Every structure is written in C-alpha cells, then in structure tokens.
Amino acid sequence: MGHEERPDLAGYRVRRAVFEQAMAWAILFTELLGRGKAVMYLIRKGLLRICLLALLVGTSGGACSTARTDLRTESVVLDLPSPSLDGGMSLEAAIVRRRSVRAFTSEPLTLEQVGQLLWAAQGITAPNGLRAAPSAGALYPLELYVILPDGLYHYRPDGHRLTRLTAEDMRLAAWEAGLRQDALRAAPAVFLFTAVYARTAERYGDRAPRYVHMEVGHAAQNLSLQAVALGLGSVPIGALEAASLQSALGLSDDHEPLYLLPVGYPSP
Ligand SMILES: Cc1cc2nc3c(=O)[nH]c(=O)nc-3n(C[C@H](O)[C@H](O)[C@H](O)COP(=O)(O)O)c2cc1C
After folding, report:
1. Among 84, 118, 140, 253, which residue's CB has the most CB atoms within a 10 Å radius?
2. Are residues 244 and 161 in the same domain?
3. For a substitution probing ligand 1, which of 99, 100, 218, 221 has the most ligand atoms within 8 Å of its CB?
C-alpha cells in the first residue's frame, strides 16, 4: 500500500517470480533431455510437483505469512493484523471530533489502520460470529470493499482477512462513479459498502431495503468514528452512480454499491 511496497506483497511477488522461473526451467529441461514422450511426461510431472511444493513451503513461513495465494481462485489473500481493542481515545472525544473531511494528504494508511477500520465496520466481535455493527436478524447483508493504491480488496470478516480482486488502482473509477467528488481521488483509501438485499429480503420481505439502509448507517458510523480515533478523517458519500461503480470495479451483480467513505490524514 502506498509508496513503499508492503513486505507481505513483496514476498508474494518474489515467490511467484521464483515459481514462474522454476516452471520455465522445468519445461526447458524436459525439452532438452526428453528422448521419448513417456520420459518427458514423467520428468515434467515430477518437476511440477517439486515446484508446487516449493511454492507451498514458501507461502507458509517467515515474513511472507500474511499473504498467500488461494490456488482455487488465484487471488491474493491477506491476513489482517489483529484489531486493537484499546485505542486510547474515548468514544465521546471521537464523537465530538468527527467532521466530514474532504481533503487529505497523500500519506498512505498502514495495513493495521486498514484492518482496524474494516473491523470497526464489519468485524466479528463475538465467538458466535456476531459483528461490530448490528444487523436485522443477524443476516449481514453488507459486503465491504476497500480501494487502495495497490488494488481493490474485499473484506472477509470470517478470519479477518482481505482478498485482492485486482492489483489496479481503482480510485479514479470511484471518483468517476462518485460524481467526480475530489475526496475520492485524494484519499489513500476508499471504503465501499455494498449490499446483498436478498439476504435480508428472504426473511423480512418488503422491509428489507429499509433495514439494509439502516445497517449501512450503523456500519459507516462505526468506521468514521474509528477513523477519528486513529487520527484520520473521512466523509460519507452517498452521491454515486451505483451501476457504473459496480461494473467499473467488476463486482458481483448482487453486490449493490451504497456508500463510499474516503479515508486519510486530513490535509492541514
Ligand atoms: C446519507 C449521506 C450522504 C452523504 N453524501 C455526501 C456526498 O455525496 N458528498 C459529500 O461531500 N458529503 C456527503 N455527506 C456528508 C454530509 O454533507 C455531512 O455529513 C454534513 O454536511 C454534516 O457535516 P458533518 O459530517 O461534518 O457533521 C453525506 C452524508 C450522509 C449522511
């Protein structure tokens, strides 16, 4: 995230490069050595296994342990640091200091800060899976994304982790779909709440849209107060073209964009 590459992502890229190089050597080696199809097949299979084993060993250790590749989906999964449960600022101080902030410095957020903000909005806070913000029937229709300079990530409350959906900086797409509000391209992090209405509608029918909209308010307020407690600022943005944002970010059809929250250090 930001100007310097995070060690976890750097580790992933190195492992990936080593793996690709090893595969290229393996194929070259078998082409050179192979006398018959059977021999090539056996050598290829054996080397492929060794390469895969090296990749798996590499992903399980040391500084690289927070990033790994989900081999089924080929997406990068980042384990977030455990959230702090004692930030030091009182709730009252955060409430009185919260103001909509629309101008930010370019200083990037740390992975700890991003994780803390996601946790405050939708993190799991009880062993039975209940979350930081209330939800009608505990059905949890909200899906939370964060757009960072190094990509678009989807928050997975279960396991407190992020899945990277693309390594592209999508903040300009958010700015376009957010009616070109400058806060969206100035902030180092833009959080996006989407809703899967059907989860709530299955039980609550016509009341679902009201419930979902109440829930996004709860969750967004948690996020904005957490931002204040971290010395950051944010603004809730409801003026957006939901369909354009959904297609620009390549979101699932049932993840309907509702609310954007750019977050960063307030510009002096
Ligand atoms: C549902 C909702 C939608 C909003 N949409 C926008 C928006 O699109 N752009 C913006 O700059 N501010 C937006 N705001 C922020 C309000 O303008 C802001 O909360 C209001 O001016 C009061 O200022 P305060 O947040 O500093 O107390 C929105 C606020 C809410 C609750």
Report:
1. 118
2. yes
3. 100
122 & 223 share domain: yes
Going by CA atoms, what residue is nearest to atom 25 of ligand 1?
A: 100
Instruction: Give the domain range for residue 164.
Output: 91-264
Confidence (pLDDT) at 75: 76
Whose C-alpha lies nearest to ligand 1, atom 20? 100
Question: What stretch of H or E contains 79?
Answer: strand 75-79
- Is 217 close to ligand 1, i.e. is its CB under 6 Å away? no
CATH number (domain holding residue 121): 3.40.109.10
As a whole number of angstroms, the distance between CA 94 and CA 132 comes to 17
Domain count, the chain: 2
Q: What would the pLDDT profile of 129-138 be if each residue is shown by its tens digit?
A: 999 999 999 9
Query: pLDDT per residue over 146-169, tens digit each?
Result: 999 999 999 999 999 999 999 999
CA of 100 from ligand 1 middle (Å) equals: 7
User: What CA–CA distances, in Å, run from 111 to 25, 83, 120?
Assistant: 35, 11, 14
**Taking CA 130 as the corner, what is the angle to CA 164 and CA 225, rounded to the nearest 5 degrees?**
70
Would you say residue 79 lies in a domain?
A: no
16-56, pLDDT tens digit by residue?
A: 444 444 444 444 444 444 444 544 443 444 444 433 333 33
